Each structure stands twice: as structure tokens, then as C-alpha cells.
Amino acid sequence: MDRITAAKVFVSIAERGSMIAAADALAMSRAMVTRYLAEMELWAGARLLHRSTRRLSLTDAGTLTLARCRSMLELAEEMALDSTVEEGAPRGLLRISCSQSLAQAVLAPAVTAFLQRFPHTTVDLQINNRAVNLVEQRIDLALRITNALEPNLIARQLAQCDSVVCAAPAYLARHGRPGQVADLARHNCLTYSYFGKSLWQFTDAHGESVSVPVSGNLSANEDTSLLRAALHGAGIVLQPRYSVMGLIARGELLPLLESFTPQQMGIHAIYTSRQHMPAALRAMLDFLADWFRHDAGWLAHTPLLPGPGPRRLPRAGQPGQA
């Protein structure tokens, strides 16, 4: 049987969750869909689906086969591209997931430069502050800022993300400045709700680790909302350095506890498999690694803040300096 069609059938079953829905989408009979699925399982040498009365779900082998089938189908589509495209050149669609602040500060300018260098590629940005399931949501690449990656993920670290503790002058005029990390426990700290009980961690001037549990009357699942609240004097916030550089340079936020260094977080590129990697994905990984390594200007970008009447704030005067 045609393995390309078998791959299309398997992908359709996995995405729609049932063989009947796949048959309808592909205008095939249920019997033909069953035959193509059997062919795929024979080809893969493993059972690909758990079958229940309610819904089909992928086995471990099915998850791996699904990623390979999608790569194979994308490659098949690329075969029809203009023959003038240089052989082996990156091409095709990349779906990339990223948080809002990192997308605005880093990914948007980096992707723009990537698309200019590789004009036969296209990018679909999925802005999401939660960790996504790459296979189920058909994501080729996810960028995450974290120090706690799941052990089964394939990740490439691109850079380190520095953070800054800061607050608006209006808040500090009302409540004073914290002099020590422990003082943060008595302040209204704006926290990231995915972390549960927030523990802010630092290194002091002697290299010793120090941490403090913080809390406040506002938490959010998205960091640019906390940043805007801090600008309006809501409290003290811990933000990526790239988000607050311009604001600190303008005096709209003031850095705090400068003799203490907040814990660094890794910026990681997450993808599904090192094998059968499309040329466009490999090119994007290498491009982003080079971008973070050599383009220090990404630290000087201030994202466009959400809310009524947004405006773009100018860059800091000296990249890499608060």
C-alpha cells in the first residue's frame, strides 16, 4: 500500500481521535482507514494506538511514529516546490511556541532575520505561557525559560536569562525600599501564579545562596501583566532583564537589592526528536543559538506592553546594562 497515504491516515486518526472522523475527513471508507492503520503498524513494527470505547490514544511508539509521519509528509510536500530552490536549503513551515515577553523581546526580531535569510521558510508563532505538548499541538519548537525541564524532553540551551527585582518610584515612596532579601517578605510582591507558593532565590556578594518566600495581593499567569501592574505602583516584581531594561533606563522602574543576584534561568529550545529533523528546524536551532550568543541587543529590547493605548518604550542607552 502507499506509505505516504498510510502516513496521512495515521496523522488524521491521531489528530481527530477516532477512525470514523479520519475517514470522514479523508473521504475514505472505515474499512480503508483500518487497512492503512494496519499497514502503518506493520511498517512501524509496533502497536500505535490504545483503543477504547470512547477515544483512541497514542502509545509511546505511536507518539514517535506520529512525529516521523509529520516530518515525512512535510518532506513530501516540499518535493513539489520550485526546482530553482537550492537543494538542501531550509524550507517549509515551522510552528514555534513561546511566552509573550520572550516572543516580543527576542523571537520576533530573530524570526524576522531568519525569514530574510531563508526566504522559502514560513513561521507560525504560538504565544503561550504554559508548557505545551509538542506532539498533540503540532509544535516543531518551543522556547522555555526554566531550570526544571522534564527529563524526557530533548532540549538545547540557548542562553541564560538574568532577572531584576524592581518597583515603580510611586510604590517605593509609599512603602520604602527593601535593604535585604528578607525584607521582601514584608512587601507586596507580584507573583507568577504557575509557581504556586513563590520562593525568590538569590546569590549574595559572597556567593552564598539566600531565598525568601514572597506573597502579595496580585498574581498572574503571564509576566507582562505583572510588569504593567508594577509600573502602576502595585508592588515589587521579579522580571527578566530583557523586559525591564528600557523602563529602568527611563526611571519608570527602579532596580532593588542590587548587591544580590537573582537566580538565573536557562532559555531552552525544546523539540521532539534529534532524528529525521527537518532542515528548517535544524537551521532555526542553529540560528537562534547564534542570535543569543552574538546579538547582545536582544537584552536591550523592551516589549510592547499590553493594555489600553500601548506604546513602545525606547531602548536602554547601553545594551546589557541596567
UniProtKB/TrEMBL annotation:
<dbReference type="GO" id="GO:0003700">
    <property type="term" value="F:DNA-binding transcription factor activity"/>
</dbReference>
<dbReference type="InterPro" id="IPR036388">
    <property type="entry name" value="WH-like_DNA-bd_sf"/>
</dbReference>
<dbReference type="InterPro" id="IPR036390">
    <property type="entry name" value="WH_DNA-bd_sf"/>
</dbReference>
<keyword id="KW-0804">Transcription</keyword>
<dbReference type="Pfam" id="PF00126">
    <property type="entry name" value="HTH_1"/>
</dbReference>
<dbReference type="InterPro" id="IPR005119">
    <property type="entry name" value="LysR_subst-bd"/>
</dbReference>
<feature type="domain" description="HTH lysR-type">
    <location>
        <begin position="1"/>
        <end position="59"/>
    </location>
</feature>
<dbReference type="InterPro" id="IPR000847">
    <property type="entry name" value="LysR_HTH_N"/>
</dbReference>
<dbReference type="GO" id="GO:0006351">
    <property type="term" value="P:DNA-templated transcription"/>
</dbReference>
<dbReference type="InterPro" id="IPR058163">
    <property type="entry name" value="LysR-type_TF_proteobact-type"/>
</dbReference>
<comment type="similarity">
    <text>Belongs to the LysR transcriptional regulatory family.</text>
</comment>
<keyword id="KW-0805">Transcription regulation</keyword>
<protein>
    <submittedName>
        <fullName>LysR family transcriptional regulator</fullName>
    </submittedName>
</protein>
<feature type="region of interest" description="Disordered">
    <location>
        <begin position="303"/>
        <end position="322"/>
    </location>
</feature>
<keyword id="KW-0238">DNA-binding</keyword>
<dbReference type="Pfam" id="PF03466">
    <property type="entry name" value="LysR_substrate"/>
</dbReference>
<dbReference type="GO" id="GO:0043565">
    <property type="term" value="F:sequence-specific DNA binding"/>
</dbReference>
